[in-house]
Amino acid sequence: MADRPTILDVADLAGVSIATVSRALHSRDIVSDKTYKAVMSAIAKTGYTQNTAAQNLRQRRANAVLVLVPYISNTYFSEILSGIEQVASSANLTVLIVDTERDHQRTEEFFKYLSNGRADGALLLEGYLPGHVFAQMQKTHGANIPIVTISEALRAPLVPHVGIDNCAAAELAVNHLIGLGHHHIAHLSGLEGIILSELRLKGYHKAMDNAGIARHERQIFSGDFTIMSGENAGRQILMLKDRPSAIFCANDEMAMGLISTLVNGGLGVPRDISVVGFDDIHFSRTFIPALTTIRQPRAQFGKQAAKILLSILKKNPIAASDYKSFKAELVVRQSTAPMK
């Protein structure tokens, strides 16, 4: 036997053909249990391992998945990436993570990986898919375009999406504040032009409208999902004579920056102002005060999206249940209290 065992060595020891060994490795369901066990036993005895690089070359597969993330430093994405990695690793796929910084030109450059053979599919965590990229992928793959969006959907449902109903989740957060007796409720919005920001603003307005609370544009403060924008909103609120009694923030990082500035300015949270965040990042429960927020099952996002992409790559039909929207959950902690 050669220094490195080959598939021929496995076939000889198992008493089957090379084609049967290949079928046992790649199409388990079409060989008998007896044959499968014989092949697995021969592999264990010979120490044979597949040359995946050569196999991928023959199949014209990169065995790699491109993951496009806006601002990878944002802790929100960590659990999603962990979920993706778990599924990808079990399928022997390499994960290529790219920080797009919401730069459309940069995003388009990395989408070229799908056409030049460096990646088989993409998981998109920002709501931008260039039209020409979609057209090219549609031409190549037909209806089975190997792209799945996570958390932030595209404006048009061109590809499968995994996430929550952001409008309903925002409404849930604001209804919590209304239920505590708050009526002067402000909103710290996310980055302008982002569908997540628009949907959460829509949910805020819907809750206020349903409660019969008048809208006032001065109750909307502009943010960009960063702690710094939360701090800036806090400074604006400290200067107001007629301050809101509660604030719904479009994410946790802004809520934390806001609370820090309000407290440093002499206000108590929730004594003077109640604050609700969105996402339930790791620091939310250890922040002082612990943050009331909307929890998203982010690890499940990553796992589900990766499973859908694998199904697409294997050309398997995708069940309608794969597209379901996950349920968001209100987590009540110490940053909200009844209106005094």
TrEMBL record:
Keywords (A to Z) from UniProt: DNA-binding, Repressor, Transcription, Transcription regulation
Presence of keyword Transcription: yes
Matches recorded under Pfam families: LacI, Peripla_BP_3
Molecular function terms, GO-annotated: DNA-binding transcription factor activity; transcription cis-regulatory region binding
Domain HTH lacI-type, residue spans: 5-59
Gene3D superfamilies: 3.40.50.2300, lambda repressor-like DNA-binding domains
Record's protein name: Transcriptional regulator, LacI family
Organism annotation: hydrothermal vent metagenome
Native organism taxonomy: unclassified sequences, metagenomes, ecological metagenomes
